[in-house]
């Protein structure tokens, strides 16, 4: 289905309605405005896809603007990570912008508001101001500083700018309406004093603008036509428009703010503050830990940009917040990796098997198809010998008829190799099986065309030749939280639901050709799942991350 034939979401309807009402199409401009105080997460992916998708749909420019107004929490590392993630997802911005580019213009406009009697300096404590704010049903009280003269406000604001005051002692507030039903309109703070070095402006400024003052004016400076944000900013729209009213020139494009629902993901959190806690408390190793729902973490785990874009398209744009089952995200990456990932064999919990009637010292190289879903993927050679590993769970001494793997007296096929029959097994002093002795049918080699090779047996196992096995560190990941919605419990902290078994590190035994695998390469360990080469890999030791298992659990969601 082409983009033009897809049904429009309500955001696209807003744009279409504006165009129908004679808004010039050439004036369309969108933006993605992240704050560089952490890494982007899967929730941001929806916003990225929305804004850049609109840019592609209408052939309109999209700005990447960093709302960098809080130097206490912002770092260049986060700026670089955000740019890397947006590009990796497959999008390209028109211009790279920063709210800090507009600090002087914002300050000049603030001076203008002071001169117009629409802003004033307040030196009350935050507790005093909070007490005067009122409640949603009771009006607030005016600050005793609200009627300061223009001259006094200008002098105090200048002192704030020069750094004459300590942090928390003076703020600039907009003079709007302390009895407004919208509490955000009750003389909101525009500037606060911060003696912090900014990652771009260093110590040039001792005052920093608040988000509400900065965001809409930045949209206006950039001539953004449509400013889309999540539902928690719906109440901010009135303030967004009030600030624009103060500086708007009718000859220019006036930005329009509209809101869409946040998409939360089950068994995780998508608050940057809470994600930062996970990093700072050592629950995870970094912002790009493969257990994290950050885009960088998903990339490191083996997710593809296509799978994340498909996920955002599937969940769509809505007007109500919703909890999305993480299984849908897993379905998307499984679906895409099934098409592109080469098949290889790796044993993660090894059990030794010996073919007693296979010549000692002999080995052969068998043909193995790389990907049955891709005719162009070709094939590779896999070494076979007398001794090899299978998974422990693939053998039982005795089993019922529904067990189609290896059991005493029964046959299975080895993938790309021969049919074998379990004859006996050896146990250690604790009764654990440590070796299985088998015989094989020499004429049953896969693809040989013999009558024996066409014989049907119900079970097919993956395996790795012991002589040729490549050792690798394999990191098995599970859900980061045991609870579906860990941060919605009023009486419990989300950290109480951290899964202590979210990471298991084991040694895997793999096909030898994987020694040439590169960081970021994705493969399917047959019958085990999809894996990706981690950035911790070296020439001496490969490290694989488990991306997702083979089982499609999305069907359970569909049934619901």
Overview of the molecule:
This protein is of the alpha/beta class. Among the domains are: about 90 residues, Alpha-Beta Complex (Glutamyl-tRNA Synthetase, domain 3), CATH 3.90.800; about 120 residues, Ribosomal Protein L25, Chain P, CATH 2.40.240.10; about 90 residues, Ribosomal Protein L25, Chain P (Beta Barrel), CATH 2.40.240. About 25% of the residues lie in helices and about 25% in strands. The chain contains 13 helices and 29 strands. A 7-stranded mixed sheet has the order 12-27-28-29-25-26-13, with helices on one face. A 7-stranded mixed sheet has the order 23-20-21-22-14-17-24, with no helix packed on it. The protein has a 4-stranded antiparallel sheet with strand order 4-5-6-7. Strand 8, helix 8 and strand 9 form a beta-alpha-beta unit. Helix 2 crosses helix 11, helix 7 packs across helix 8 and helix 11 packs across helix 12. It is elongated, with a radius of gyration of 31 Å.
């Amino acid at each position: 289905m082409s983009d033009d034939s897809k049904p429009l979401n309500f955001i696209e309807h807003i744009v279409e309605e504006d165009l129908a009402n004679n808004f010039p199409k050439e004036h369309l401009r969108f933006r993605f405005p992240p704050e560089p105080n952490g890494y982007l997460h899967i929730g941001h992916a929806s916003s990225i896809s929305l804004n850049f998708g609109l840019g592609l749909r209408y052939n309109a420019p999209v700005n990447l603007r960093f709302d960098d107004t809080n130097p206490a929490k912002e770092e260049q590392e986060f700026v670089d990570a955000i740019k890397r993630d947006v590009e990796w997802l497959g999008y390209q911005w028109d211009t790279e912008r920063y709210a800090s580019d507009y600090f002087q213009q914002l300050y000049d406009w603030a001076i203008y508001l002071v001169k117009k009697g629409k802003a004033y300096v307040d030196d009350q404590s935050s507790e005093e101001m909070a007490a005067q704010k009122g409640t949603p049903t009771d009006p607030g009280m005016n600050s005793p500083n609200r009627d300061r003269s223009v001259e006094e406000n200008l002098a105090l604001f200048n002192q704030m700018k020069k750094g004459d005051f300590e942090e928390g002692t003076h703020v600039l507030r907009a003079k709007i309406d302390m009895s407004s039903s919208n509490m955000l309109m009750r003389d909101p703070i525009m500037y606060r004093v911060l003696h912090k070095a900014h990652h771009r402006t260093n110590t040039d400024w001792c005052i920093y603008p608040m988000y509400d003052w900065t965001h809409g004016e930045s949209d206006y400076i950039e001539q953004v036509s449509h400013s889309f944000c999540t539902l928690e900013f719906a109440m901010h729209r009135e303030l967004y428009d009030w600030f624009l009213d103060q500086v708007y020139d009718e000859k220019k494009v006036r930005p329009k703010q509209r809101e869409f629902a946040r998409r939360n993901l089950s068994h995780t959190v998508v608050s940057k503050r809470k994600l930062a806690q996970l990093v700072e408390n050592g629950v995870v190793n970094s912002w790009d830990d493969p257990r994290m729902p950050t885009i960088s973490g998903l990339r490191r785990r083996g997710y593809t940009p296509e799978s994340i874009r498909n996920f955002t398209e599937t969940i769509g744009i809505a007007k109500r917040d919703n909890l999305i089952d993480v299984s849908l995200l897993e379905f998307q990456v499984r679906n895409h990796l099934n098409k592109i990932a080469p098949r290889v064999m790796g044993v993660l919990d090894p059990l030794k098997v010996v073919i007693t009637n296979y010549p000692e010292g002999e080995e052969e190289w068998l043909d193995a198809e790389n990907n049955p879903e891709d005719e162009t993927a070709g094939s590779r050679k896999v070494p076979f010998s007398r001794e090899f590993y299978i998974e422990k769970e693939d053998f039982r001494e005795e089993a019922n008829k529904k067990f189609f793997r290896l059991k005493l007296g029964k046959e299975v096929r080895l993938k790309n190799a021969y049919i074998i029959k379990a004859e006996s097994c050896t146990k250690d002093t604790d009764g654990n099986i440590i070796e299985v002795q088998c015989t094989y049918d020499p004429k049953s080699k896969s693809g040989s065309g013999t009558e024996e090779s066409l014989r049907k047996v119900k079970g097919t196992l993956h395996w790795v030749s012991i002589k040729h096995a490549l050792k690798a560190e394999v990191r098995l990941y599970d859900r980061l939280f045991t609870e579906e919605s860990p941060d919605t419990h009023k009486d419990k902290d989300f950290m109480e639901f951290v899964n202590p078994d979210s990471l298991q590190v084991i040694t895997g035994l793999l096909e030898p050709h994987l020694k040439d695998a590169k960081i970021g390469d994705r493969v399917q360990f047959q019958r085990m799942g999809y894996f990706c080469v981690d950035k911790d890999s070296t020439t001496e030791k490969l490290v694989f991350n488990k991306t997702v298992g083979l089982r499609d659990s999305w069907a359970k969601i569909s049934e619901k």
